[in-house]
Write a structure and sequence with these properties.
By secondary structure, the chain is mainly beta. Helices cover 3% and strands 53% of the residues. It has one helix and 19 strands.
Length: 332
């Protein structure tokens, strides 16, 4: 007789209606420098972002800067991201990009544009160690890239003038694993990460055997290792500034026919000269408006790269140009 009223009281205290604060969610720091690398139980975050890159050059095979005479390459990304804290030390996340690109050349009188879905990524972050004061956070990050974007630039017959669009996907998937570590020291925090990206082979429509006129060959970009470092300072109140650097080292890619038995990669032919490394540096500013709203802006400057073996796939063959970004994060 007394059990039902008791259960009713307990249940009511543990829930929140509408946009009230959820009592089951984990505490969340008001400023960036004190936040761990996972979101925390019960929190849902939606982010909207925009990246803008206008390239007027590339890199040589030796990593030297090359200036284009009249060509311009505009590469933008419109991002939607979702994070959800499933436990105190684990979160799931999804990132869905769209791209608008434009290649123009005043000397040739050409101007080609395209818009479409990029390559979505989703993953799982697990916090292996955490200390609250000062904040220490060690995270394992597992990520999968899905080849969902368009992978056909049109027919190559008739030369480059017949290509009327651009590929938005490599046609193959990636599986990546990272270790990330953050340590706070007063108003400062350093974040360091290292990881490996394994690139599987996939059948891609842009791979063409020119001798047999066979389309949709098998393509495998080189797998890569990467390291990132960031130093952040909570300069005043909700305002934080940071600087970062990223080093990537990738290996030779390969290409071949769609057939090949159980292990198709064994029959692929290496693509000479497609290995290399790159270095990017930049920084930005973050304003923690409230615990539920963050606004950020940043710039990334390429310092070293490799030639455009896989143009226009910026993720694995980047052009030379600064990338300016803006992000809005909404959290509940």
């Amino acid at each position: 007789m007394w059990l039902l009223p008791l259960l009713s009281v307990v249940t009511t205290d543990a829930l929140a209606a509408g946009f009230q604060i959820k009592t089951m969610r984990a505490p969340f720091a008001a400023v960036e420098v004190e936040r761990p690398l996972v979101l925390g139980k019960g929190w849902l975050e939606v982010s909207l972002g925009y990246d803008h890159k206008l390239a007027d050059g590339a890199w040589s095979a030796e990593g030297e800067a090359v200036q284009w005479e009249s060509a311009r390459w505009l590469y933008t990304t419109e991002r939607i991201g979702i994070r959800y804290g499933i436990t105190r030390d684990a979160e799931l996340y999804w990132d869905v990009p769209f791209h608008y690109v434009n290649l123009s050349n005043e000397a040739l009188g050409t101007d080609t544009s395209a818009f479409g879905l990029g390559e979505p990524r989703f993953g799982w972050r697990l916090q292996l160690f955490r200390r609250q004061v000062p904040t220490t956070s060690l995270v394992m990050d597992l990520q999968y890239k899905m080849p969902a974007g368009a992978e056909s630039p049109g027919s190559y017959v008739g030369g480059p003038n017949t290509v009327s669009t651009f590929t938005m996907s490599s046609g193959q998937s990636d599986l990546a694993g990272y270790l990330r570590f953050k340590q706070q020291v007063g108003p400062l925090a350093g974040t360091f990460s290292a990881g490996y990206v394994h690139r599987f082979s996939g059948v891609s429509q842009f791979v063409v055997d020119a001798e047999t006129y066979q389309f949709a060959g098998r393509f495998k970009p080189g797998s890569e290792v990467r390291a990132e470092a960031e130093v952040l300072a909570q300069v005043v109140g909700p305002l934080a500034v940071y600087g970062d650097a990223t080093v990537r080292r990738w290996f030779e890619g390969a290409v071949g026919t769609t057939s090949g038995g159980f292990y198709a990669d064994a029959n692929l032919d290496p693509i000479p000269g497609t290995d290399g490394w790159s270095l990017d540096a930049g920084g930005g500013v973050i304003v923690n408006v409230t615990r539920g709203v963050d606004v950020g802006a940043s710039v990334s400057v390429p310092l070293r790269g490799e030639d455009l073996a896989y143009f226009p796939l910026e993720d694995i063959s980047a052009t030379r140009g600064n990338t300016y970004s803006a992000t809005l994060e909404l959290r509940y």
